[in-house]
Design brief:
By secondary structure, the protein is of the alpha/beta class. It has 2 domains: 190 residues, FAD/NAD(P)-binding domain (3-Layer(bba) Sandwich), CATH 3.50.50; 136 residues, FAD/NAD(P)-binding domain. It has 10 helices and 26 strands. Helix 1 packs parallel to helix 9, helix 1 packs across helix 10 and helix 5 packs parallel to helix 6. It is globular, with a radius of gyration of 22 Å. The structure holds nicotinamide-adenine-dinucleotide (NAD). Nicotinamide-adenine-dinucleotide (NAD) binds next to helix 6, strand 15 and strand 24. Keywords: FAD, Flavoprotein, Oxidoreductase.
Length: 395
């Protein structure tokens, strides 16, 4: 009987496991492996970092949502020995496979930036998200005693999706902490290298987001290239100038980009930022028994010739096709090509606002209605990958 091993129970891994349970021939062994017992809604980590959600609000037990025919194993993957078709672990005996799915998700990327590891706080999982809130909270609390103005300053490095959604959520956090510790104004600054934020959105929507954040007191520096992080400052240059400027802050948060899992690189695959370029069928050219989905994969967009941007929505769309293709391989049937049609792009600006650009029909939404669109798209994803009707919503 065929043995399928799925590494990672994020959106991609869970999505494949549930679909395979329905489609795979009876007797197929399906193992789903993750180092954690819980699936974490990584697109909601910013809420834990801002203190507006608790870890349990954005996570759920993997075992509770998978079909009976899927066998869950909690273990930490070390590498995939693809020559011998087995997976090695740091805390479990090797597991052999006929087909393996790499769906191990992302990690924060610091691009070797001086001081980033030492002096800034990355956002990549529950512990790092909790640490961010702890640092912000304790700096505000300590201000009364320290009278250090940097205690009141928060710097968010990078204004991609993660940075923007965190900034939006921090608006309320700042109000709450200001009142709680009776401190003067809390200053939040975003430092972004690109000339404009949110280039993936229509310019009107991106401008709405900028205006919203500015109106709520957030300072946005664009065209500001971060050069290093110091103990209490983000050092950057503007435009062509070499002159170093600083944003001083005791809470420095790093959201400057992500890579795929280090397991991908450590296994010796050909990678760029720990991502493997997959075929149109979502497997690897020289190893068709290895499928890759989500943040560990680079699916080339035929229109641009560049990898599609990684999102939860993309991971789940890939999961659908990869599951069908694994079953086709088991049945010696032809494989299906992956064609991605994004349903749209949404970003939240705090719990009740956001921007959204839907594709079919093409509509642009702002404010509360965009935030509702984000919540419902999130619920669709959740239902498909876990069969549940939503986690606790923002208050
Ligand atoms: P990202 O790569 O999307 O954004 C990083 C930002 O940092 C970019 O705007 C980049 O210009 C900036 N940057 C890079 N180097 C810099 C430097 N030296 N100085 C200043 N700025 C610099 O990364 P992310 O925001 O962490 O998102 C990670 C992935 O997760 C993305 O693929 C994103 O699409 C996805 N995501 C999607 C959603 C959503 O769909 N709502 C939410 C969160 C994350």
């Amino acid at each position: 009987m065929a043995h399928i091993v799925i590494l990672g129970a994020g959106y991609g891994g869970l999505g494949i496991a549930r679909k395979l349970a329905k489609l795979a021939p009876e007797g197929t062994i399906i193992d789903l492996i993750d180092r954690n017992k819980k699936h974490v809604e990584s697109i909601q980590l910013y809420r834990v970092a801002a203190g507006t959600a608790q870890p349990d609000d954005i996570s759920f037990d993997i075992q509770a949502v998978i079909p009976e025919s899927v066998h869950f194993i909690q273990a930490n993957v070390k590498k995939v020995d693809y020559e011998n078709k087995k997976v090695e672990f740091t805390d479990h005996a090797d597991i052999s496979y006929d087909y393996v799915v790499l769906a191990l998700g992302f990690r924060s990327e610091n691009f070797g930036m001086e001081g980033a590891n030492e002096y800034s706080y990355k956002l990549q999982d529950i512990p790092t998200a909790q640490k961010i809130y702890q640092v912000i909270n304790s700096n505000m609390r300590d201000y009364k005693q320290s009278q250090d103005p940097n205690d009141l300053n928060i710097a968010v490095c990078g204004a991609g999706f993660t940075g923007i959604e965190l900034l939006g959520e921090l608006i309320d956090t700042a109000k709450v902490l200001k009142a709680k510790y009776n401190v003067p104004e809390i200053n939040i600054t975003s430092i972004e290298m690109a000339p404009q934020i949110l280039p993936m959105f229509d310019s009107q929507l991106a401008q709405y987001a900028v205006n919203f954040l500015k109106k709520n007191g957030i300072k946005i520096l664009t065209g500001a290239k971060i050069k290093k992080i110091e103990q209490n400052a983000v050092v950057y240059t503007k435009g062509d100038s070499d002159e170093e400027q600083r944003v001083y802050a005791n809470s420095i948060i790093w959201t400057v980009g992500v890579s795929g899992s280090d397991v991908i690189k450590d296994s010796g695959f050909d990678v760029k930022r720990n991502r493997i370029t997959v075929t149109d069928y979502l497997n690897i050219q020289d190893h068709p028994e290895i499928y890759v989905v989500g943040d560990d994969s680079a699916s080339i967009d035929p229109k641009s010739g560049r990898p599609l941007p990684t999102t939860g929505q993309l991971a789940l769309a890939q999961a659908r096709v990869a599951a069908v293709n694994i079953v086709a391989a088991l049945n010696n049937a032809p494989q299906k090509k992956f064609n991605y049609n994004s349903a749209g792009t949404v970003a939240s600006l705090g719990p009740h606002h956001g921007i959204a650009e839907m594709t079919k029909p093409h509509i642009k939404l702002t404010g509360h209605v965009a935030s509702l669109a984000k919540n419902s798209s999130f619920e669709v994803v959740l239902y498909e990958c876990a069969g549940i009707k939503g986690l606790k919503k923002p208050n």
